[in-house]
Structures are given as structure tokens and as C-alpha cells.
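User: Teach me something about this protein's shape.
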Amino acid sequence: MANYIANSTNSLSFYLTSDNEKIGELIYEKWYASNAEIKTSNGAKFHLKPKGIWNSKIELKDGEKTILEFNLGWNGVLIKTFFNDLEESFSLRIKGFSSNKFILTDSDKKELLVAEMDTKWNSLNYKYSIKTTNEFESFTNKDVMVLALLHCINYYIYITTIVSVK
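Assistant: First, the predicted structure itself:
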């Protein structure tokens, strides 16, 4: 098991750490944008880009290659990864109706990660406490996946906020 902390220093950047060691960063082009960049501590860069007419699907690209995609479904965010040319499916769901906890499960509904959001309303900054299982920690691309999941959560919050306001 591992514990991660993701802090936003402003509304455009999130820094991911574990045991006070920087893992990477999620950077948005503009506030609540679908486009974002992931930078890992080893210098790798990935891009999150919307796809489709309604920007209903977001892809994580390593150069031109799609390595992860997600879209909002009836049961949460549906995620597919294509790391090492192996396709895997996951689901990210909010726990409860108005909760601040998100659960990542695999295709067998086995829990892999729990992310709990804490909003600092006075500064509009966000903090996520993320706990992972040993199985998740064995993933070769776990750092990139955690950063992409932050984007998934932010996307989910943004979309459900828009729908509830209308």
C-alpha cells in the first residue's frame, strides 16, 4: 500500500507526492479545461486531449500513441488503459451520493485506489489524499495512472456540476 498527496497550488496545477517525494505534476492549460499535461519526476511528458463531438472521451497520449482513455458513463468514469499494448478496463466511482471519496476498481470490481478530496474554499485549492493497494502499486505505470485519475476526478466534478446547475 502507498499514500499519495495531490495539492493544487492554483487552479491550474496539481503536484503529486508520496513520502514527501515529488512524483509528478498535472498542469491544465486553462481553468476547467479538458486539455492538460502530465509531467513525471523522471522528465516524461504526456498529454490529455478530448476526443469526439462533445469532448465526451479524453485520451492520454504518449506522443501520438493513446495509452489511456476515459469517458463519463452511467456508473462513473469508465477507463481503459493500453500500457505495454495490453488493454485493461477500470471504473472510477464516487462513493455515496454527495461524497468526496472516489474508488477505482478493476474489471472484477476489486478496489485498487481510494481518493479523498478536500477543498480549501477560501483559496479555491484542492487537496487529494490517495491510498492505493499493493496490486495497484505493482503497476508499471502507476505514477502516470494516478495523475491521469486526478484529471478523471476533476473532469467528473466539472461535468456533474454543470449538469446539476442546468
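Now, about its shape. Residues 7 and 127 are 5 Å apart (CA to CA). The chain has a mean pLDDT of 88. If you'd like, I can walk through any region in more detail.
User: That's plenty for now, thanks!
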